[in-house]
Design goal:
single chain; 169 residues; mainly alpha; 3 helices; 88% helix
Length: 169
Amino acid sequence: MVEALGISLKEFIFYLINFAILVGVLAKFLYKPFLAILDERRQKIQDALDSAEAANRRADEKMDAYTRRIANVESEGREIIREAKSKADAEARAILDDAGDRASKMITDAREEIERDKERAREDMKGEIRDLALLAASRILEQEVAADGRQDEIVEQILKEQSEGKWNN
């Protein structure tokens, strides 16, 4: 079947080995750095979540402290205590709301940044793959064209296919 396509088994094996080398190089120099970027972003998100959780714990501790103080106050200060509790609740809610808002914003920003980084990495990877594939194809074509002497025919055929819109880049 390989010989029916106009290439010998040796050439096919050579192309297959070149392809495997290309995939190995891409995996080493593009895929691993991409995973490192994703791990870094994942760690930033986890740190943001931990920070938000710590803020919530602090707010809960403040709320508990205010509640314990209120329970120990004597009866003649009930009005003052009610005001302090009300103020503490409002402050705790504000702290919790602020912490929740900050955490949500940090998570949203981190997710958006991860998506942007993913897209940039994909675009960079596409460009690198395209450049490497074009370089490999041009070298292979140089060897094949020089070997069978049909340079003019191949160039004319490529130009014809391109002008007919058969290529979808």
